[in-house]
Amino acid sequence: MSPIGIDAISIYTPPYSLPLTELARARGIDPLKYTVGLGQETMSVMPPREDIVTMAASAALPLLNKNPELKNTISLVIFATESGVDQSKAAGTWVHNLLQLNSKARVIELKQACYSATFALQMACAFMKQTPHQCALVIASDTARYGINTPGEPTQGCGAVAFIVKQHPRLIEIEEGAGIHTEHVMDFWRPPYLDTALVDGKYSTRVYLTALQTCWDHYQEATNRQYESHARFCYHVPFCKMAEKAHERLAKESCSDNSKHALIYPKLIGNSYSASLYISLASLLENDPEDLSGQRIGFFSYGSGCVAEFFSGVVAKGYQQYMAQEWHHHLIQSRTPLSCPEYEQFFLLNSLKSTESYSTIDSAAGSFEFLGVEGHVRRYKKKQSGL
Ligand code: COA
What we know:
Elements: E1 4-12, E2 16-19, H1 20-27, H2 31-37, E3 42-44, H3 52-66, H4 70-73, E4 74-80, H5 91-98, E5 106-110, H6 116-128, E6 135-144, E7 157-167, E8 172-174, E9 179-182, E10 188-189, E11 198-199, H7 201-223, E12 232-235, H8 240-251, H9 264-269, H10 276-287, E13 296-303, E14 307-315, H11 325-333, E15 336-337, H12 340-349, E16 358-359, E17 368-374, E18 377-382
Parallel strand pairs: 2-15, 4-5, 4-6, 12-13
Antiparallel strand pairs: 1-7, 1-8, 2-3, 6-7, 8-14, 9-14, 10-11, 13-14, 16-17, 17-18
Helix pairs in contact: 1-2, 3-5, 7-8
The structure holds coenzyme A (COA).
């Protein structure tokens, strides 16, 4: 059986951020609660000219620019999101159009809170096992909105990740064997008439840890692997302290800093829901000073509601040459820091609207812009300066 997994990866986050010290000052909270207690430094803020479609297309575009042949070989596009923009049409169909992909490629949208990108990855691996000359484009794109002056507010953020799944991958081979846990819990959900999540935050952190333990036990039974069989770990990161607590749980008394490079991007981007685990993977591969070739990474994916999965992958030899750390560092470092009132203005402008037509106000964006809605139809544009 040919190895299968992630062949290329690209992340995107919009060009604005909110320093959490600024948010703490505005809310009259000790900044250490956010920076130490939650482990977050800044969070990306989505401007009105962006949405999950523009973020997704901006994440995927560099992959196509690097390898123009992809347009002919992508036969499946899976878009994972919690923040869907339409009840019927898959967000991936807009991305398919913006990127001018092959009309023979299937497009589908998946939803299960922050878990869906993991199912997208597993589904893409299963499809691509049968098709040696094709590949799948998996995209996860989300904006985490909890609301102004709520406990969840400092754990917002936004971002997207795009990756190519194919045989003989150049980055990570996904291994057989996983631990799964599904349970009906109301820890986080969002009815169609709300644009902010309903969340029982403390309960969700407890369910996350219980699901981790159950998945880990099942994964160990299924694979006979121990903690020491893994060189690094990547977790779903609603906020960095959550991933650190998860890691402490698995590491027990072992050396526990083998997840820290996976948290460099999430600490700056904030929560990106379905994208967060895979932004964490990019963070690890691009910032870990050690050569991880041939090493096993453990992945924990958690989607409230809840579905969770622990699985693993082995890093390919020479993966470093296919990463884009300079570009990703630039994206994150060049964001414009907002004041709290400016962030609040963007937050309100991005609220769910029930009008059939509106235009978005001018604001910086990535390679694509969301112009607004005309007669119920969303309008997008590729920027002239787009990469
Ligand atoms: N200095 C350092 N740490 C401080 C502090 C200070 N001045 N003040 C508080 N803290 C610590 C607390 O001790 C706590 O750490 P602990 O959990 O290790 O004890 C942490 O900061 C958070 O404080 P807490 O009072 O629990 O925060 P909160 O009630 O305001 O809400 C969440 C925290 C995570 C529940 C909230 O942000 C939330 O609901 N987020 C969205 C849901 C979510 O992300 N769920 C995760 C699973 S997917």
